[in-house]
């Protein structure tokens, strides 16, 4: 199966790892995964982000331990769609905050005569306090990358 995911992946945390791992599970051993990492204008409004190359390295370091799919491609994406609209994919793995974008992708795919993607909706991964693990909370020093409370 050909699966795509995308994100900023600023501080690679437990939630990101869960999303990536699900993409590997869905793709299967002979599958293909595209991981789009935001770059350029797409995230200029966000402050203090690591560089694209730092974020890509963190993702590649994590997936290097998996070695369970045939092909993994990690590339920059300049918008919320990346190659998902016209690309050859079967499924997209998303978090609750990106479900609407996946539905929009499918509308656009149908509009150009492509089959819609299977949308695999993953829940947010929660920290010890029951709130979502996020890079912003990690940067604030509230939690670590696994959701453990620091304050």
State the shape: globular
**Rg estimate, integer Å:** 15 Å
Work out the helix count.
Answer: 4
Number of domains: 1
Total number of beta strands? 5
In the CATH scheme, the class would be Alpha Beta
Order of helices and strands: EHEHEEHEH
Helical/strand content category:
alpha/beta
Taking the sheet with the most strands, its summary is: 5 strands, parallel
CATH superfamily annotation: HUPs
Task: Outline the low-pLDDT stretches.
Answer: none
CATH structural architecture = 3-Layer(aba) Sandwich
Could you explain the architecture of this structure?
The protein has 151 residues and is of the alpha/beta class. The protein has one domain: 3-Layer(aba) Sandwich (Rossmann fold). It contains four helices and five strands. It has helices at 14-27, 52-63, 99-111, 135-139, and strands at residues 2-7, 32-38, 71-77, 91-94, 118-121. The termini are far apart. The mean pLDDT is 92.
Summarize this structure briefly.
This protein is α/β, with parallel strands linked by helices and 151 residues long.
Task: Looking at this protein, list some descriptive labels.
alpha/beta, 151 residues, Rossmann fold, 5 strands, five-stranded parallel β-sheet, globular
